[in-house]
Amino acid sequence: MIKQLLTLNILFLTYFSGFCQKIDFVNGDGALSIGTSSNRTAWITLTDIDNDGDLDALVANGRHWAEQSYIYFNDGTGNFKSGQPLGSLLQASYCIKAADLNGDGYLDIVLANDKIPNMIYFGDATMSFEKQQKFGQASPSRHVEIADINNDGHPDLIISNRKTQNEIWLNDGNGVYRECVYFGDQGAETIQAVAVDLNGDGYPDVVTAERGGKNKIFINDGHGEFAKIIAFGNEEIDCRSVTIADINTDGFPDVIAGYLGAPNRIYYGDKNLTYANFDEFGDSATTNSIAAGDFNQDGILDIVEGNVEAVNRVFIGKGNGTFTMQHLREDLKDDTYHVEVGDLNNDGLLDIVEANSDAWNLYYYTIRQK
Fold first, then answer.
1. Chain centre to alpha carbon of residue 49
2. Contact between 329 and 352 (Cβ < 8 Å)
3. Within its chain, how far is the Cα of 266 from the centroid?
4. Within 61-127, where are the H helices?
5. How deeply is 21 buried, as exposed, middle or buried, from its count of CB atoms within 10 A (0-12, 13-18, 19+)?
6. Other CB atoms closer than 10 Å to residue 43's CB: what's the count?
7. Are strands 3-6 and 278-281 parallel, antiparallel or unpaired?
8. pTM of the model
9. pLDDT value for 164
């Protein structure tokens, strides 16, 4: 049964009155920014790239146009006072991720590019990322997910392509990617893929966000192949983002989907993996990105959405199937392509980062109200 629990009227009337301590999301009127360039930023990943114990920011710029991508270093207090370009080549980049691909103890960086080869930059003690490797063809890539899809102990690369078949590039054990397995439909418009074990068999399955069709779940058979495919959602609504979390705490992973011009949805998992039951939240904003986390530390998951030409919002879970809403900055209606969650200042609270196109990339400290 569809329950529209989170309409704006209800949210405003029930503004965060839960039992736990209230929180604010503080940006300092734009002072908290990862750099001051207004690039076409499509993705920001938070990771400890220099292994000093805090979260740094990897920034993918360009989308359809050639721009420089960057690494920004956290100074240990949650500020980004230094950075460096990632390579010397300007590229049309949509997504950036990091993992130790070759097993040498250093994080490597992967760029998913639009209609030019995707790139790997290998890390080492110098932090120069001079060693590089191209992989794949000139596909309209939108996202890269890193997971050991064939259970051989080495991280593989899952590439989401728009209007071209998706790819899984298999790691040979040394961080070299020559073998590719294709999945999905040739004409599908896959914007994102998330790898997670949905059925509890120990193997990562793949959930996709699709434009122009239903979202898909690809069930991994343990050998990197998908013997079962489950379609869910509304094929008439374009989806740009999915994230996985057990929102109703029943032990089954749920899928949270961000939609363009329609309320976002939580699809509830069950033992049959049907994902037929869902709740809607928000309104008809154009949501490019969805993330989840427990911002107020009450043990109940919250949801943050990144919107286009609309205020970005956080939906605070109340634990009884309802949420309340808080704005990040009511005065801003940027084009946010991605939202990322992580503890930037090591205070134990999750913070929020926006990847904005043609605007500064802002971040927000989560603080407890006094």
1. 18
2. no
3. 16
4. none
5. exposed
6. 26
7. parallel
8. 0.93
9. 95
Regions of the chain short of the pLDDT cut 50: 1-19
- For residue 262, what are its two tokens? 């329609």
Note the pLDDT of residue 122. 98
Neighbours of 99 (CB within 10 A): 16
Q: Do residues 273 and 253 make contact, with C-beta atoms less than 8 angstroms apart?
A: no
- Residue-level pLDDT at 20: 58
Please say whether the beta carbons of 246 and 228 come within 8 A.
no
Contacts 24+ apart (CB under 8 A), 346-349: 346/53, 346/54, 346/76, 346/78, 348/297, 349/23, 349/295, 349/297
Residue 160: half-sphere exposure toward Cβ, Cα within 13 Å: 27
- The sign of the dihedral angle between the CA atoms of 80, 328, 146, 286 is negative
User: Cα separation of 269 and 199, whole Å?
Assistant: 10
Residue 87, beta-bridge partner list: none
SS3 breakdown of the chain: % helix, strand, coil, rounded to 5?
Answer: 0, 50, 50
Whole-angstrom Cα Rg for the chain: 20
Which uninterrupted H or E stretch holds 8? helix 8-13
Looking at this protein, which amino acid is placed at residue 370? K
What is the separation, in whole angstroms, between the first and last Cα of the chain?
40
Q: What whole-number distance in Å separates Cα of residue 364 and Cα of residue 116?
A: 33
Residue that the structure tokens 């094929």 belong to: 235
Tell me how far apart the alpha carbons of residues 309 and 218 are, in angstroms, rounded to a whole number: 33
Summarised one tens digit per residue, pLDDT across range 21-57 is 799 999 999 999 999 999 999 999 999 999 999 999 9
Q: Where are the beta strands (DSSP E) in 247-348?
A: 254-259, 264-267, 278-281, 286-293, 302-308, 313-317, 323-327, 335-342
Query: What does the DSSP assignment read for 213-256?
Result: S-EEEEEE-SSS-EEEEEEES-TTS-EEEEEEE-TT-SSS-EEE
Tokens standing for residue 118: 């995707």
CA gap 28, 184 in Å, rounded: 44
pLDDT at res. 19: 47
- Integer CA distances (angstroms), 27 to 78, 204, 312, in order: 12, 36, 13
CA 350 to chain centre: 15
In this structure, what are the phi and psi dihedrals at residue 12, rounded to the nearest 5 degrees? -65, -35
